[in-house]
Structures are given as structure tokens and as C-alpha cells.
Sequence to fold (604 residues):
Amino acid sequence: MGRPDTDRPVGLTTAPAEPAAPTAEPPRQRAPRRWRLRRFDLLVVAGYLALAALLTVGQWRRPERLFHQAGDQILFEWMLARAARAVTGAENPLYSTALNAPDGVNLMANTSVLGLGVPLTPVTLLFGSQAAFLVAVVCCLAGTATAWYALLARRLVRSRGAAAVGGLFCGFAPGMVSQAGAHLHMAAQFLVPVILGLVFRPDTDRVRRHGVLLGLAVAYQVFLGEEVLVFLALAAGVFAAAYALVDRASARRLAPAVLGRLGVGALVAGVLLAYPLWFQFAGPGHYRGMPFFAQGFRLDAASFTTAARQTVTGNARLPGLLSPNPTEENSFFGPALPLLAVLVVVRLWRRPLVRALAGCGLLFALLSLGPTIRVNRHETGLPGPYRLLTEVPLLDLVVPARFALVCVPVLAVLLALALDRVHGRPVRRAPRLLWTGAVVAALLPLAPTPIRTVPAVPLPAFVADGGWRAYVPPGRTLVPVPPVTGAAASPGTFWSARTGLAFDAPGGFFIGPRSADDPTAHWGAPDRPTSLLLRRAAETGQVPLVTDADRRQAVEDLRHWRTAVLVQAASAPDDPVRATVDALLGPGRDVDGAHIWDVRPLVG
Fold:
């Protein structure tokens, strides 16, 4: 692969610029080279878009299908539909009573992805929430790959082919694909290279201008996904510290400009985000903590050398044993890629950039293993570095498994540097073929497959065609049966999203406070007695004994929800939930593919 470059300037995307070796060339040679758009660039972006579209092929024009983590897709479809409603209706984008009626949901404290929902409003209005979700997935994957490609090609490597491979891995690594099918807020990483490029510019001029742009980018990222921004800030800090240790001269030279840009950016972002962040942490519906044990969501160390299930060599069994769930397969790089990365680090160890990348990637890989390290399903009892973060505010709420996502761009940059070494300058044919073949052999087994889908219970015609409108006057709600609370897939959320939030409903899939007096985080709305009774019938398959006290409580709960009609889809006369509602309220009737109970006479 040859010796480290000493004959050209190097601008960094994620760190201060490396110093060139002593040379007789004038200082102007150290300025970043001019970058121009070429036909190859358009082909690369088109390829990214085509691959992203291919991965979502299981749902296009198939409203009866959802990605395998159906509840998460339903939530994000609803968020996209809510963003469109906020735009067209000039409503508060940070809060809504369309779910959890009558109390509402603090959307800023949930993953509202307004940064996607607002610009996708035309798609949502014209084609519906499912189309908007799929377009968002395509934009997140292809957009992340494109942004990294542009930054790699402009700052780090001469070979655009090498940059294309790096961008491809950044956008379509196993962890990105597993997140994209469920968590838009984690897949939307196209601003990450933009922010890094603004922070770690190789020049020291126009500090205020770049600081303002940095503040705008950070503010926008908050409305895409705050968790990604937390990982970005941590990774950038660790990388900068590591780089400063190995190249102190460059760090001293660039530190004033970097700190200046950070200061201006913090001021701009602080002004823009002051009210949204206050609303998130102190506004109506805010909560404290998380409704799940975040530290339990960790990775097995063996997962780093295993293939993810959404790859051509993966299977459905082993990844499920090494990761918390199918959406958190963030570390599945296969057996060849980690080995290749080690070889690249050894070969390019003289470059401060490579040493800093290696240290950053290793630390975040260890953090993803959680408080104690597990290897191939065996508890070693060894403490992991994540244990140091368990008492740090905000960081104690981060899912440990997602720290491994930081390893994706680290590996991508190393791959790009390796390929650029043999393709960006004259190199003998044998080394070029050797390293190119090694990269191909490491990446081909990780080629993603279309995201798996599962069937969805279709909307009853009574809901889809608007038959409910004759029963639900303004100010009243439609209650799906059973009224789902907790983290289960919510038909109310699904129906609301697919109808463009045409009606208000209680419950839903979101995070909120346990009660009006207890801000402890809780999945969904606070449980009411009737919800618990119907949930027990659904879970046990048996009709509980219904008393007069239960009937009085049901009427009280319906009045709390401001209910006009209860609706159950795809029910049969022997369904235990249906029989329980009949025992509480009297018999319902079948209307347009649904079984309904008109409770307006009861509720008043």
C-alpha cells in the first residue's frame, strides 16, 4: 500500500488537518484542493438511491404489509402524519391531543422527527403516511451515504471510488439497515458528516460564518434525532482528544478556530432550541427517565464478527441471541471486516488520523457491550467502560447497543483510506488487486437484503372510508378495542396515521408520565381499569367475570376518554374481548368490516 502520503495536503472530515512532511513546496500547496461535481458523482448517488429503494421493496404499493418491527413503523407513520397536520393546520408541532386524548402527547419528548416530517408534508398529503415513511427510509439511507461520500471525496481521499465505498458502508452497514426499518431518528444521519466537516475544518478563517452554519445544522439534527447528536458529540470529543495526543502541533494550531466555531454554533443552536428543549423537559406531558432498563440493551462481544440477519450471509437465529432485538444489530460486521480494519490500522499507523480513529472506534465498541461484558452468550463478569456512564445524567438513558453505530463511519473511513492508498496514486498492480480484493471479500457478505415485512391487520372500511364520522361529533373520540396502553402495537395509532389524524383517540404508542402527579416515564397512557380488564381478556383468551362495579367504572372511563364509539376490527362472536365489552356495555353491531358500540347514550 505504500508509505503515508507526504506529498499532498490532507483536509480532515473528523479531525484537525494532519501536517504534511517537511517539503520545499510553498505553503499554498497545503490548501484544500478544489472539488467539482462529475458524472461519476451522479452515478454514485443514483446507485445509493436505487439500493435504498430496493431495500424497501417489500412495502411499496402494499398497504397490508409493515416492516418486521411493526409497532415502531406505526409510531413513525403517525409522527409523519402529525407533522403534515401541523404544517397545514398551523398547529403546535411539539404537542398533540390526537393521541392519548384528552391529555395529549409531548411530541418533543418523543421521537417526532419533525426534520423529516415537515419537508415530507407534500408526500404525506398526496400519498399517505406509509409512502412518506418509505420515502423517509430511502432518504435516510441514501442521504447518509451521499453526505459521507461527498465529505470523503472532498477532504480525505483522492479516489472517488474509494469515497464511494466508504459512503456505501456508512449508509448501508448492517446497523443502519436494521435501524432504518424501525427507527427513523437513528437512521437519519445525513447531517453527521456535515456537522463534523464544519467543526473540524482544516482552515482557520471565517470562524463566525462556519459557526453559524454549525449551529443551524445542530439545531436541525435535534429535530431529526437527539440521540444521534449525543453520540456525535461524544465521538467528536473522544476523537479530537485522541488526535490532539498524537499530533499536538496541529491541535495547537487549529484549536482556537475549532473552539471559536463551537462557541458560535452553541450560541446559535441555543437560541433556536431554547423553547423546544424547555418544552421537552418541562412542558405538558414531560417525563423523567425511561420506561425500560436501558442498560439491559447491550451487545454480545461475539456480535462484532457475526453476520446480521438482514445480509446475504445472515440467518434469523444467531443474531437474535447476540443482540437485544432485530433493530439493534448495530455491530454485526462479519468475520472479515474487523480483521481487515486491524490490518489497515497497522499498515497506516503512522498517520495520526488512523490512530485517532482506531482509539475512538475501539472505545465505542467497548461501550456497546454494556456494564458487564458478555462473550458468545457467556457472562464474563468483566466490567465494561459503559459502567462509568451509568450515573451521568442523560447518558444513563442511552441504549448501550447503539454506541456501536459510531464504529460504522470509523470503519468506512479506514476502508476509504486503504482503497485510496492503492487507487489514488501509482501503485504496482499486485498490491492494488490484493487490497481491492480484500475489501470486496470483507464487504460482499455484508450486502443488505430487503427489509423483512410482516402482515398488518387492515383498516376496517368503517374507519378507512369515514363511516365513523356519523358517530363522532367534534370534541369526542373514537376508541379502538381493546384500547391499547403500554408498548404494544396500537391500532388507534395505526388507524390515526393512515387516515391523516382524522379523529382523536385515547391511548397509543408513545412515552409519557405515569400519571399527572408522577412524571416517571411510562409506555403509553396511564392505565385505566377498563383498559386493564380488556387487556386481560385479550392476553388470557378468557372472558373475566364482569360486575356492576366494572360496568360503572367502564362508563366513568368512557367519559374520561370523551368516547363516542368503540370500534373493533376483525372480531368474531366468540372473541373474548368482544364478549367482555358486550358484558360491560351491551351488545354492539357489525358495520362495514368492524364491530362497533355506540356509547353516546351512555356517556351523555
In short: The CA atoms of residues 515 and 526 lie 6 Å apart. The chain has a mean pLDDT of 90. The first helix runs from residue 39 to 55.
